[in-house]
Amino acid sequence: MGMGDVDPVFIQAPEHRPKPSVILAEGIPLIDLSPINYHEEDTVSDPYAIKGLVEEIGRACKEWGFFQVINHGVPLDKRQRIEAAARNFFALSLEEKKKVRRDEINVLGYFEAEHTKNVRDWKEIYDFNVQEPTYIPPSVEPIDKDVIQFKWDNRWPQNPPEFREVSQEYAQEVEKLAHKLMELIALSLGMPAKTFRGFFKHHTSNIRLNHYPPCPYPHLALGLGRHKDTGVLTVLAQDDVGGLEVKRKSDGEWIRVKPIPNSYIINVGDMIQVWSNDAYESVEHRVMVNSEKERFSIPFFLKPALYTNVRPLDELVNEEKPPIYKPINWGEFRTSRLRSNFVKSNVENVQIYHFKVAK
Length: 359
Ligand SMILES: O=C(O)CCC(=O)C(=O)O
Ligand SMILES: [Fe+2]
Known about the structure:
CATH superfamily: B-lactam Antibiotic, Isopenicillin N Synthase, Chain
Bound molecules: 2-oxoglutaric acid, fe (ii) ion
CATH topology: Jelly Rolls
Distance between the termini: 52 Å
C-alpha cells in the first residue's frame, strides 16, 4: 500500500467523521485550583474560597462532565520529563517498540492496533500501571471461568533509559492531584471529602502515553473514536497541537478543547456516574488527527481496586431517587472491556447501561 492510500480499517462511518469546521466558541470550564494548592506556610486554606471551588467543580461535572484545571500542584518539570520520554520512545523503530508490545495475557505495554467501537484508531499507545504489583484477584468469589485471567506486569522499555523513572515519578504527582479532585467531587455531592478514599487501597490506575502521527486522510479517520472513559476520573495532559473533542451535553455538538499550557483536562468516568447515581455523567469524547502535525497526550486513569463493587452511594439514593444501577464488579467489567479492545468484533462491548435496574 502506498503512502496516502486509504486503508479501510481506519475509515469511520460517515456520521462519525470529523466535521471540517471546528467549534471553538464556548469551551469546557476552566477552574483555578489555587485555593487547595496553598503554600506550606499557610496553615489553613480559605474556607470561603474552597466553597466557591467546590461549587464550580459540581457545576462543571453536571453540565459538561469535563473541565480544565490550572494551579494544580503537579510540578512542570516532571511533566516535561515524561513528555520527552514519550517522544523518544515513540521515535524508536517499530521493531524496538514491539519488544514491549502487549498481548492477550499481559495487557500492558506498547500497542499500535487499538480499535474503538470496531474501527481502528490512528494512534500508537503505551500503557503502564501505577501500582506495582497490581493486586489480584478481581473478586473474592470465583469468577466466570471463560474470563481470561490477565496479568498486570509493567513492561518497561530499555530505551530511553530514564523512561521508567520519569514515568513513575510523574505518576505519583498526578495520582495526588486525582485524589484531591475526588475530595472536591465528594464535597460537591454533599458528602465528606474522604468518601472515595477507601476504594483505592489496591487501585488499578494506569497511565497511557498516546502518540497520534500525522494522518494523510484526517477527514475520514480519527485518532481515537468516540468513547467514554470507563474508570473513575481521568487527568489528561495534552500538548499544544489540539484535537480532543467533547460532546456538549446541551446540544450534542462536538466541541474542541483548547490547549492551555501547563493545564490538565479532567473528566468524569463511568464509575463516578454509577456512584453518583447519574448526578454526574461520563461524557463522550474523541480525537481528531491532522495531516501535518503529530500529537502527544498523556492520560492518567484513576481506577478502583479490582474487587470493588461499584454501586450508587447510599447517601445519594432515597425513595424518590432509587438506585439506577445494579452493583458492577470493577474487575469483571474491566476484564470484559479489555478483551474487546483487541479485536474487531460485531458485538458491542459492555457498558454501564447494561447494569441499569429495570424500571
Ligand atoms: O488524546 C486525548 O486528548 C484524549 C485521550 C483519551 O480520551 C483516552 O486515551 O481515553
Ligand atoms: Fe478518553
